[in-house]
Write a structure and sequence with these properties.
Layout: E1 14-15, E2 17-22, E3 28-33, E4 36-40, E5 45-50, H1 55-63, E6 65-70, H2 76-82, H3 92-96, E7 100-102, E8 109-111, E9 116-127, E10 132-143, H4 156-159, E11 162-165, E12 170-173, H5 184-191, E13 192-193, H6 196-200, H7 203-212, E14 219-220
The site of flavin mononucleotide has 22 residues, from β3, β5 and α1.
Amino acid sequence: MKISLGSKAIAVPSPVWVIGSYGSSAQPNIMVASWASICCTTPACVAVSLRASRATYANIVEHQAFTIGIPSRDFLIETDFIGSVSGVLVNKFFATGLTPVRSSVVDAPYVEEFPLIMECSLLHMLEIGSHTQFIGQVMDVKADEEALGENGLPSVEKIKPLIGSAGDRSYYSIGKWLGETPLANNWLADKLFVDEKLVDAPIDEVGSLSQDNPDCLKVRKS
Ligand SMILES: Cc1cc2nc3c(=O)[nH]c(=O)nc-3n(C[C@H](O)[C@H](O)[C@H](O)COP(=O)(O)O)c2cc1C
């Protein structure tokens, strides 16, 4: 039986991203955001939700740009500090010893020490309630060579990103590699009683095939 926890924005896990922006005197600032995700493939976009009280909020509005840095777990303490103190009070680059680098494509700084960076131009702002969602178009992604896998793409195991738990406000590191998507073709073949046509179909056709033939997905073997 499920226990109701009420109307709360709790989903696990959440990302731990560091948002880079410039203040009005061009001072580089960073904050942490977990209310964040990829939100569009074309154009490539990400969304971060910020309270209006964050110095970063005004910075992004003024400069129409921000960066996202994905810290590795080696920077747990620095990251927590960046998410605990406002740039209005403290120069967080100076305090942590992290290195600000001016983006070559947008008017925002990023953290040199973090293995993966997205440089974003502000595309939309959506006022929701306590938070405003900033949608940024990703103008470039920069990665340390050591953060890339053999396929030339960012490797979760090499980056070792922090992940967050919204409910208990905790940090975790990643678990083990489980497999490459799509895994469900094998699961369908193994677990379901299906006709030959469906077993041979790529996973993105299964939905339409099963609608055409509602009988083909109805019996589970186990
Ligand atoms: C793990 C973590 C996640 C956070 N996520 C968000 C978030 O998604 N949105 C937000 O407005 N503040 C978030 N914060 C709080 C800001 O990072 C914090 O208030 C920061 O000091 C704001 O810095 P600024 O005033 O220099 O912009 C988070 C803090 C932590 C530690």
